[in-house]
Each structure stands twice: as structure tokens, then as C-alpha cells.
Design goal:
4 strands, two-stranded antiparallel sheet, 161 residues, globular, Arc Repressor Mutant, subunit A, mainly alpha, 8 helices
Length: 161
């Protein structure tokens, strides 16, 4: 028997303010943490984050992530999924022209690279080169606090399969 976290719709309305505050606080903490690690403006941070998520989507779809790829080891290029500028615009909600301009600037500044397969990716070794490992603890600590709050109010609950 396994456990999973599920939402509890009947408690969401009763605890709307608590749930939204918790989620927005998590967003702000993550934004602040990522902005400190990647010195760019808000639009470029949104693009950078969108590219980061897209680049690991193949790995994240695996039922079991290979142990040697779960940490900060450099991903082999065959595991990295490039993302097009149009897909960045769709995923982020930014206008296509805005994405195009910012991506060009980010490539020029070395924050993104053109992939030979099309689209863009992060440079190889970005986690190590930018010293991003320590940032994870702060974001997870805030996530845990928010999760405890949502569990306490019943907005989410643990359910047995």
C-alpha cells in the first residue's frame, strides 16, 4: 500500500485565504531565491525557469529516475530536451516577440545556448557553475512549511492507495 497527497475540494473554500497565501508565499520565496542565483530581470527569470523545466521533462517522465541522474550530475545531452521560443511563450504566457528578444539577449550573455536539435537549453554544468546546490534547501524548507499548513487545514491530505 502506498500513500499519496491529494487535494480536498470541500476544505479549499473554507480555507481559501490560507491556501492561496501559502502558495503565493512559496512562489515569492522561489522567485527571490532564483533571482539571487540568476541575476536577471523578472521576464528573463521566467524564461530561464521555463527552459530549465523543459530541459529535464524527459527525465521527469521516467517512472524511476536513474539514481546517477537524480542529483546535480551533468545530464547527458540525450536526456536534455531543448525548447522552442514558441513553446517558451506558450508555457510562460509571455508574448512571442518578448520571448524572442529576451532569449537572444540571454544567449548573448551565456545564460542560454542554441541547441543543434533546435530550440534552446541551459549551458552544460549550470548547477555547478552557478553554485545552485545550496539554494535547494531554502526552497524545500519553505515548501515543507506551506505543505504543513495545507495539511493542518485539510486543504490537502494524505490518502492510501
Amino acid at each position: 500500500m502506498s500513500e499519496r497527497v491529494v487535494t480536498n475540494p470541500s476544505k479549499m473554500g473554507e480555507n481559501w485565504r490560507v491556501a492561496v497565501c501559502s502558495l503565493m508565499n512559496l512562489f515569492l520565496t522561489m522567485h527571490r531565491t532564483l533571482a539571487a542565483a540568476t541575476p536577471v530581470g523578472p521576464t528573463e527569470l521566467l524564461i530561464y525557469t521555463t527552459v530549465s523545466v523543459a530541459n529535464v521533462q524527459r527525465l521527469m517522465r521516467e517512472r524511476t529516475i536513474p539514481e546517477h541522474l537524480a542529483g546535480t550530475e551533468i545530464l547527458p545531452r540525450e536526456w536534455v530536451v531543448p525548447i522552442s521560443r514558441n513553446a517558451i511563450a506558450t508555457a510562460s504566457g509571455l508574448p512571442r516577440e518578448t520571448v524572442r528578444r529576451h532569449v537572444a539577449r540571454m544567449i548573448e550573455n551565456g545564460l542560454l545556448i542554441e541547441d543543434v536539435r533546435g530550440g534552446v537549453t541551459l549551458p552544460i554544468g549550470v548547477i555547478q557553475d552557478r553554485g545552485l546546490e545550496p539554494f535547494l534547501e531554502g526552497m524545500l524548507t519553505n515548501f515543507a512549511r506551506g505543505t504543513e499548513e495545507l495539511l493542518r487545514t485539510g486543504v490537502i491530505r494524505i490518502e492510501n492507495d
